[in-house]
Amino acid sequence: MELELKNRLFPFHQEKGSKILKDGGRLIVIGDVHGCIRELEKLLKKIDPKKKDRVLFLGDLINRGPNSKAVIQLARDINAISLLGNHEFHLLQYYHNPDSIELKTYERSTLSSLDEQDWNYIASMVLWLESPPRKLVFVHGGFLPHIPWRKQSASIVTNIQVVDKAGLPRKRNEVSSGKPWADLWKQKPYVVYGHTPRAKVYKRRYSLGIDTGCVWGGKLTALILPENKIVQVDAKKKYIK
Ligand SMILES: [Mn+2]
């Protein structure tokens, strides 16, 4: 399949959030969906987005769960903005250089379900979004606390969960002594992120993690701004062990 992607992989473009919302509209920020289409539909029904509102997905719309394609299609249909998650990043890396990437079984099944429009949507995902400038930043994984956040790579900001003793970004289960990056993030901007599933939203002074592990049988969470309200639905089941 030969595609012409509307956006290049590198550099990812960045958006100024001030442009995305109409006056009086709400920003509906949704955590990691991972193909959980039924929970996503239920969550949106509960929130009832109006024309002025905008949906922002924090990345990892795909993989692991029951229907990645349906989630991408829904995101396109409602003109949602999506941030790049590590799962989309991995597929895009495969797309650009198939020989360098080994895919998991669930990635292969996602891959075979995607059409050109789906790919274009995935390729349009932004690395992070600032809204309004400098006050609030949305990103999939997070940031290293000791490097200016705008300078951090796609690999870091989509994958980071904890910081190890050497100050490197790691997955939570890779190191026993790692500290959640959010615990070390003691400065502005305020960061809203997903990627690290937890039983509850993870609130710190300068950050909020809203991945509540829907695909693991937890909840799908939305943060609604500006009212700062959390809306959740329970997962219908545990989709993976
Ligand atoms: Mn993730």
A few lines on this structure:
The protein has helices at 37-47, 68-77, 86-96, 105-113, 116-123, 154-159, 181-184; strands at residues 15-16, 27-30, 54-57, 81-82, 128-130, 136-139, 162-163, 169-170, 179-180, 190-193, 202-204, 207-209, 219-225, 229-234.
Note down, in words, how this protein is organized.
The protein is α/β, with parallel strands linked by helices. It has one domain (18-234): 4-Layer Sandwich (Purple Acid Phosphatase, chain A, domain 2), CATH 3.60.21.10. The chain is 24% helix and 20% strand. The strands form three sheets. It has a six-stranded mixed beta sheet, with no helix packed on it. It has a five-stranded mixed beta sheet with strand order 4-3-2-13-14, covered by helices on one side. It has a three-stranded antiparallel beta sheet with strand order 8-7-9. The structure holds manganese (II) ion (MN). Residues 32, 60, 85-86, 140, 195 line the site of manganese (II) ion (MN).
What would the keywords be for this entry?
241 residues, alpha/beta, Purple Acid Phosphatase, chain A, domain 2, 6-stranded mixed β-sheet, 5-stranded mixed β-sheet, 24% helix, 20% strand, disordered N terminus, binds manganese (II) ion
